[in-house]
Amino acid sequence: MLRPLLLALTALLFAAPAAQACIDQPLSKPFTPWLDFAHYQAAPETWTLDGAAVVPGGHPWSGGSESLSLPAGASALTAPVCITLVHPTLRFFVRGTGTLAVSVLTEGGLEVPVGVVLGTGAWAPSPVLPVVLNVLGEQDVRFRFTSATGSLRIDDVWIDPYSKG
User: Fold this and answer.
1) In DSSP terms, which residues pair with 154 in a beta bridge?
2) SS3 content of the chain, % helix, strand, coil (to 5)
3) Structural domain of residue 115, as residue ranges?
4) Which UniProt key words apply to this protein (predicted)?
5) What is the tens place of the pLDDT at every residue in 32-72?
6) Which of 18, 51, 59, 144 could disulfide-link 123, Cβ–Cβ 3.0 to 4.6 Å?
7) Which of 126, 43, 52 is nearest to 87 (CA)?
8) Model pTM?
């Protein structure tokens, strides 16, 4: 099973269209209260929603006033994000009960699961999830968040540009 995935990733390495040059984004340390001192850049807040909705109320650690509500079966897809080898992980804030599946998509349509996050009821930072496709070099990707079970909310998706800062 791993071999077909590696072959597909290798093929994409040579066939993927070149992304626009990644532009350095402002950095922040949003997870310092949880002893994660890495620098992160914010993912775009433009979403393609499928059964999900923007709702009032975000996590209490930022000035944001909205979050995404994902009932069971709903999904949200980020706008394209430029990643490189030095963008190894992502994190976000999550609230609710249920299971959230996270995947990364290439412009060519390949979708790779990167993790499953269990809701804990109250707002909490997600675990650190691997970007995975960053090993293919500079490219634009999107992240899909799907509520597999239960009802969840997510807020502030952050990508780690390998502790730049």
Assistant:
1) 68, 94
2) 15, 45, 40
3) 28-160
4) Signal
5) 999 999 999 999 989 999 999 999 998 988 767 899 999 99
6) 59
7) 43
8) 0.85
Q: What angle do CA 142, 73, 46 make, to 5 degrees?
A: 35
* Domain membership flag for residue 11: no
Tell me, yes or no, whether 13 lies in a domain: no
Q: Quick one: how far is CA 154 from the chain centroid?
A: 10
- In angstroms, the CA 149 to CA 36 distance is 28
Residue matched to tokens 């340390």? 29
Distance CA 165, CA 162 (A): 9
CATH of the domain at 100: 2.60.120.260
- Give the C-alpha separation, 33 to 135, whole Å: 29
CA neighbor of 154 nearest in space, from 94, 98, 114, 96: 94
